[in-house]
């Protein structure tokens, strides 16, 4: 796994889009476990540190998520809330369930599709 502005390689892959400084978009694919979670968390934290108004985290292409990966993503959503960044997470049912289990009793901004996550952002 390495970090650049394009893809990260390894068990998971992240595609970044920073073309709009007010909005950050990260799509994660592959398998995210406790070994790969710290690097993804650093990537997300770096994007949040740029103080975007909105942050979209697309996990629809994530094929596997263990409890360590889920806890790391929950911590990232909590950090976004501290920074007052409007973070939206798009996840399939299986990944969404793992995130909900890791987040209890916290409420996560989960959406079933990218369109659903973007809808409230339309002006």
Key phrases:
about 120 residues, alpha/beta, Transcription Regulator spoIIAA, 5-stranded mixed beta sheet, 5 strands, about 35% helix, globular
Descriptive account of the structure:
Strand 2, helix 1 and strand 3 form a beta-alpha-beta unit. The chain is α/β, with parallel strands linked by helices. It is globular, with a radius of gyration of 13 Å. It is 37% helix and 31% strand. It has a five-stranded mixed sheet with strand order 1-2-3-4-5. The protein starts with 11 loop residues before the first strand and ends in a 5-residue tail after the last helix.
CATH superfamily: STAS domain
SS-derived structural category = alpha/beta
* Distance linking N and C termini: 37 Å
**Shape summary:** globular
CATH topology: Transcription Regulator spoIIAA
> How would a crystallographer describe the biggest sheet?
5 strands, mixed
Show unreliable segments.
1-10
Query: What would CATH call the class?
Result: Alpha Beta
Strand order of the largest sheet: 1-2-3-4-5
Average pLDDT for all residues: 83
Label the CATH architecture: 2-Layer Sandwich
Radius of gyration from the alpha-carbon trace, in angstroms: 13 Å
Kindly estimate the percentage of residues that lie in beta strands according to DSSP.
Answer: 25-35%
Question: What is the N-to-C succession of helices and strands?
Answer: EEHEHEHEH
The beta-strand count equals 5
Residues in helices, as a percent range: 25-40%
Integer count of domains:
1
Count every helix, treating DSSP H or I runs of 4 or more residues as helices: 4
């Amino acid at each position: 796994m390495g970090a650049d502005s394009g893809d990260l390689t390894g068990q998971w892959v992240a595609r970044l889009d920073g073309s709009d400084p007010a909005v950050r978009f990260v799509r994660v694919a592959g398998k995210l476990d406790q070994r790969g979670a710290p690097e993804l968390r650093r990537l997300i934290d770096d994007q949040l540190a740029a103080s975007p108004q909105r942050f979209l985290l697309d996990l629809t292409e994530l094929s596997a998520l263990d409890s360590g990966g889920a806890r790391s993503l929950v911590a990232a959503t909590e950090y976004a809330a501290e920074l007052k960044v409007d973070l939206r997470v798009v996840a399939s049912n299986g990944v969404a369930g793992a995130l909900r289990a890791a987040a209890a009793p916290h409420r996560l901004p989960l959406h079933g599709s990218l369109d659903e996550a973007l809808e409230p952002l339309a002006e």
